[in-house]
Amino acid sequence: MKSTKIIYWAFTVLLSAFIVSGAILDILKGPDVVSFFKHLGYPEYFPRFIGLLKLLGIAAILTPGIPKIKEWAYAGLTFDVAGALSSHLLNGDPPTIWMPAFIGLVLVTGSYLFYRKKLKLSLKITE
């Protein structure tokens, strides 16, 4: 159980830092962010909208005791990074551009898998 918790928190802290840093840039919506989203074909209002949702998703994942909302938050973050990855790939972007989205997908997957494993182990202990 201890190693599962450590791995879960390692993935979750890295995921949180990754998502929050991107969300802040999206919300601030500097010229680089606007041109980046425009390149991908998204409207100008989209960065602030998705940035706020990313912050809410991480807040839900880090808040204890709300398993159903955590599931939805993981789903939303998965859609976000998978959508970003597919947008880059479909636009023909080089790996240096799409690799952060791939790393985000790895982080959200790892955090979610170890969240489920941790949850399953804690249920066995309480039985």
From TrEMBL:
User: In the UniProt record, does the keyword Transmembrane helix occur?
Assistant: yes
**InterPro entries to which the protein is assigned, alphabetical:** DoxX, UCP030066
Q: Which GO terms describe its cellular component?
A: membrane
Record's keyword terms, sorted: Membrane, Transmembrane, Transmembrane helix
> What Pfam families does its record include?
DoxX_2 (PF13564)
State its location(s): Membrane
Q: TM spans, by residue?
A: 7-25, 45-65, 72-91, 97-115
Keyword Transmembrane helix found: yes
Q: How does it sit in the membrane?
A: Multi-pass membrane protein
Name of the protein: DoxX family protein
